[in-house]
Amino acid sequence: MNQVHESNSARTTGFRVLLYSILGMVALTAFLPIIYMVGFSTGVADPTAPFGQGGAGETVGRTIENYQAVLTDENTDMPLYLRNTLIIAILGVGGTVISSAFVAYGFSRVRWRGRGVAFMTMLATMMIPFPVVMVPLFVMFREVGWIGTFAPLWVPAWFGNAFSIFLLRQFFMTIPRELDDAARIDGCGHLRNFFYIILPLSKPALLVVALLHFMFVWNDFLGPLVFLTHRDQFTLALGLQLYLSKLGQTPWNLLMAATAIMTAPVLLLFFIAQRTFVEGISTAGTKG
Amino acid sequence: MKHDSLRTGLLWIGPWLLGFGIFTVLPVSLAIYYGFTDYTLLESPIPVGTQNYERMLHDEILGTVLWNTAIFGVLSIFFGSILSIALAALLSKPARFQSFWRAAVFAPSVLPLVAIAVIFKLGYDPDPEVGLANQMIDWFTFGAFQGPNWFGSGFWAMTALLLMSLWSVGPAVVIYLAGLRDVPKQLHEAASIDGVGPVGRFFHVVLPMISPVILFNVIIGVINAAQVFAVPLIMTGGGPERSTYFHSMYVYDQAFKFGDMGYASALGVLQFAIILTLTGLILLAGRKLVYYRGA
Lengths: 288, 295
Description:
heterodimer, A: mainly alpha, MetI-like fold, two-stranded antiparallel ribbon, 2% strand, B: mainly alpha, two-stranded antiparallel sheet, 68% helix
């Protein structure tokens, strides 16, 4: 009896060791690009290496001065790009959260004929690829004089985002109906129910939507590429690409420092809110 | 429970309805219209019938672009699905620091595409002292093999893009994890008692139970793969010799490089039609292959 127990526990220990080594390797592989980036961005380029390649292979020490150098580099204007990205992100996040919550309420708590059809239509719009609407949107925005302004990048966010609405609707459905029934008996209309009952209970879901939109703006490349025309309006994504295109004059370690500066905020945000974040994604995927 | 009026409902979804009209219905209709015109932005669109669509039939670049997009889509979805199901199975095992492991797998997916492209562009540098990929090949083979010149040939450039696409399986993994969690324990136990081993249980119990989730992820994968743009643009610029030139890049170039808005719109409509057709076909195949509980 004892022997059986021992061999069993030996097997479990073996299994554990295997499990954790695989997990460790997976995590290491996942972080590999980030480690590589940080490694490069803190490297001191060998001054004798040919300029341009930045002496990438022959780093001769560690420094964080590269980060400072990027922020003051004449070939790029990271502080300005950061400011532009933040303006677009803040205007867009506010709009997405408010409008999506409002619409999600209409798709979950208000009962009306045709709700199902409208909801399915909204889900179907997620299949429309951006390149289809790219040209017409450009023409439309040009017509109203928005090309070369931030407007095309944040105004549409105020009309709700299909994925955010879907996510919030799924969350609203999990709030017990008794709560709003009670509120209604107390004479609350939809609007008060929305503001005083549903919204306060949905803070985590609202946070996920805010985060997702923030990351979307931070990462978006094609939108700014099509709608922005002047270097002064560039976002970080465009700025980084512009910096890369000057590779002849930009050493690799500075480029990597710029990449790290762009990457750090989203990674930080993600790790702070990762549980809420991951739960938000899995809700969307399974309860459809 | 009393019903609300249609007016109340429409008022609540008003913001979306308005946006749907302005930012979806209108541009999609315009794209369809522009697709039948010659339009250079300098003058108003001139109707030319089906000329743009006839041009597609003889457009060799379009053929290349569609082929590249299809190859990339099929292979990235295939390998991505296998990897994400395997990772989900691994991460569903009870372990300490579970949320850390899950966050680690998800983390690369939150990185900006432009940043990823820059990192991998350097990572694929053929010089093993610079490029991480060839450095690894050097290490693991003890210097016996030399890594390829990644962006020197079409084959290796496509391989490079496919490999790096595996870093962004995070969202799929999370969705598979939720799917695995919903597989009833009793089924596992019942199969176990019948003498089915872990491998058999995976193929005959788990896989059928998560098949709706696979279907969902494959459809998302098709929609995303059809639109791949930023990463190849930055890493390879579509080369060498258009071997990594994808459909969205072609639409962009036709519109904003060559100023041919009519043809670009027609190409966009083609992309949309392909996505719709594929989604329809996958759903149809899903009817036979996917197991729905309660159905």
